[in-house]
Amino acid sequence: MSRKSLWIGMIIGVCVFSTANLVFASIGGNRTPKPPGIEVTVQAGDTLWEIAKRYDEQAHMSTQELMYYIQQENQLTSAVIHPGDVLVIPLES
């Protein structure tokens, strides 16, 4: 094998490695760690507002802010919750 072929092979190898590294990094390498939280099972009569109010001081947020973050964390499209639903309550560390 000539030196030229060896260099071309090394350059192609580096390009393939770099491309694979970029692909895998974009798939999951940039994930930020989830904030700590607790799981709460919705009981009959619970509302999202009441649950947020129960944990707002522990989360260091207003009730309205915590409601928003609970909806985001649990992919809720509205404030409607049902008994038996398990919600993650995001808490700041």
- The topology string of helices and strands comes to HEHHE
Secondary-structure content class: mainly alpha
Q: Main beta sheet, described? A: 2 strands, antiparallel
What is the average per-residue confidence, as pLDDT, rounded to a whole number? 83
Number of helical regions: 3
* Cα distance spanning the termini: 59 Å
How big a fraction of the residues is strand?
5-15%
Could you tell me the radius of gyration in angstroms? 24 Å
The share of residues in helices is 40-55%
**Could you name the ranges where pLDDT drops below 50 across 5 or more consecutive residues?**
none
Please tally the β strands and state the result: 2
Shape: rod-shaped
Strand order, main sheet: write it out: 1-2
Q: Summed up, what is this model?
A:
This protein is mainly α. It is 54% helix and 11% strand. Helix 2 (48-59) crosses helix 3 (63-73).
